[in-house]
Amino acid sequence: MSETAALDSAQVAHLANLARIELSPDELEKLTGELGVILDSIAKVSEVATPDVPATSHPVPMSNVFRADEPGETLTTEQALSGAPEHDGTRFAVSAILGEEQ
After folding, report:
1. Which residues of 73-95 are buried (b: 16+ CB within 10 A; e: fewer)?
2. Quick check: 17 and 36 in contact, CB under 8 A?
3. Statement: residue 93 has pLDDT above 50
4. Which residues contact 40 (CB under 8 A, 6 or more apart)?
5. What is the DSSP string of the chain?
6. What domains, with CATH codes, occur in the chain?
7. Terminus of the chain with fewer CB atoms < 10 Å: N or C?
8. What is the Cα–Cα distance from 13 to 98, expressed in whole angstroms?
9. pLDDT tens readout for residues 29-79
10. Residue pair 86/94 in contact by the 8 Å Cβ criterion
């Protein structure tokens, strides 16, 4: 590990505490090493990411592939509700998932 990315178990324990994650001593030791490798990798990328290299989120250019949003024919209420297992004539009826009626 490089000096810029050096982490000790106390720092990892502090991060785990901030994230409200309980770690066993074995997990703490393992994560200390893994986070050190991650920080080393970030440091390597930072060395080559100079101001003349544009930031990217994807290796190839992406474009919007959605169709134009144009008004068109829509279903009637009866058509929309025709395949619903339960409805009240104007809306879908869905049973409560929290055990409370609203």
Report:
1. eeeeeeeebeeeeebeeeeeeee
2. no
3. yes
4. 1, 2, 5
5. --GGG---HHHHHHHHHHTT----HHHHHHHHHHHHHHHHHHHHHHHH--TTS---SSSS-----PPP--------HHHHHTT-SSB-SSSB----SSS---
6. 3-48 (1.10.20)
7. C
8. 36
9. 999 999 999 999 988 888 887 888 777 788 888 888 888 888 999 999 999
10. yes
Q: Say how many residues make up the chain.
A: 102
Which residues in 33-56 are b (16+ Cβ under 10 Å) and which e?
eebbeebeeeeeeeeeeeeeeeee
* Residue position matching structure tokens 């324990």: 13
Q: Which two tokens stand for residue 80?
A: 């929309």
How sure is the predictor about 101, in pLDDT bands with cuts at 50, 70 and 90? low
pTM of this structure: 0.45
What pLDDT does residue 97 have? 77
The encoded tokens of residue 16 equal: 């785990």
